[in-house]
Design goal:
Number of domains: 2
Strand content: under 5%
Strand order of the largest sheet: 1-2
Radius of gyration: 21 Å
Number of helices: 15
Number of strands: 2
Distance between the termini: 38 Å
Helix content: over 70%
Structural class: mainly alpha
Length: 424
Amino acid sequence: MTPARLLRRLVLLDEGEAPALLWSTLYFFLLLFGFYLLRPVREAIGIARGADKLPWLMTGTLLAMVLANPAFAALVSRLPRRRFIPLAYRFFALNMLAFFLAFRFLPNHGGAALGCGFYIWLSVFNLFVVSVFWGLMSDVWSEVQGKRLFGFIATGGTLGAIAGAALTGAVTKGFALGGLHLKVNPLSLLLLSMLTLEGAVLCVKRLAVLFHLGDVAHGEREPGPGPLEGLRLIVTSRYLQLICAYMLFFTITSTFLYLQQGAIVERTFTGTAARTAAFARIDLWVNALTLATQVFLTGRIITALGIPVVLSILPVLTLVGFGALGVWPTFGVMALFQVLRRGLHYAVDRPAREILYIPLGPEERYKSKPFIDTFIYRGGDLLGVWAPTVLAALAVPVILGALGCSGLWLGSSLALGRQTRARS
């Protein structure tokens, strides 16, 4: 069987779409591969002497988003897509080089301050590069194509995350070569991540050719000159406001579930090894469900059910899941809930959410969207981290707060679905 025929068995593919689909998938693979190379480095270095200060790190990340969004909007306002996307990625690559040199040559590897700075920077980096990626995808693919193809494109990110985490584990533990046991300095992963970003730049350039992206700023499909236009559109657009609400409640409920997961695992398992194994099993099941769904089902589910219905799947699951945890707070119930929620988020909910931007203009895709994907997302993280303290002061169980947020999320998804139907 030829590769083209095999691809058509996996994806609802039309004639001529295969090259752009594969370049898009490789692009996302490289982005997530590079990030997951650095994620363990962040956990090992970035929160040294700061693990008990997670809310403050989240606050610092949110403040960094406040500074980064206007700077990126100004860049978008001056350059065409095929230039500002590579420039943004190369800027982050230079940041990686700067961190490598600082960790390598500063006394005590820069201390806790540099570690916390790296933690915050990597949180900004991850959200920005992925937001820009999906902004370009929603720009070059049509809505009909997005429903069919975004699930498969997301597979590239899933494979990149798995490969990046696996390679980081391998090189930090060491490997055998010619009878010698070699161990690689974790900081060298920063240099490898620079190469993955350059690979992503090559993918952008190839897609620019395939989709005939212009080389002049402020063209018909290019963002305009106003750097604050993205924020103005959020203030005036109910559609964008509902996307903000959807994102906010997703991140808050994610944090609530993370807290429940930690408490249940701690109560159920004794010792670090047993708890680590429990988390690893959950991650394995999530990856298996995500990959299987992305490859075989996502395009068919979104095409058959439509965006409004798909947007309500995760909020309904979350409402039912927290209700089940309130009655049966066991590891089995929590693991099933977490696996289904995370797997369906990566495989179905995220591609469907990105399709929401396809009917919009370049201002919304490249100025409003990064703000929503970074500032609103991290704002939800921050609210979720501090919420248990507030709920405890009010003598309200965390599970009731989680159910309330899940209900609000479901309401926002239904309202967003109505807006989506009205725009169709």
